[in-house]
Structure prediction request, 174 residues.
Amino acid sequence: MIIDGKKLSEQILSKVKQEVIEIKKKGKTPALSVILIGDYPPSEIYVKNKEKIAKKVGINSKIIRYEKNVKQSEVINKIKELNKNSEISGILVQLPLPKHFNKEEIINSILPSKDVDGFHPVNVGGLASGYDSIVPCTPLGCLLILKSLNEDLNGKHAVIIGRSNLNGKPMAQL
Prediction:
């Protein structure tokens, strides 16, 4: 069986675009702030693609760039500023972070309601407990692909290879 991921992606983006239109009708424009630290080429590409897709569906997107030697406290202060800004709907800190950063402190400084990656412990716990919460994008994308093939996944068996906090664990919980 061949899965047409591009077609499914376009369907999802069309739906998201309609949801953004509805939100804008209520006087609010969704806005994403992405924090990118250093010059790691794969992160540069990933962030650029996020910005492109956000614009495609009508979400404001801003990339905040820091040199790799930036102090963690400076980044946390920026996150706190974004947390307080009612114009910002979501915050994403692009991983991996430079070695001198404490990833948990950075993630924990993002308000759970603005944590678009779903990495904050409140969102992780919500997912683990079966509550509505923000879900990491890769596992959610995998689930949407599976559901596009068969809406009812109850009773199905799956093998998940890997147990990372980013993909394997959330996928198993979904």
In short: The mean pLDDT is 94. DSSP finds seven helices and three strands in the chain. The CA atoms of residues 118 and 134 lie 5 Å apart.
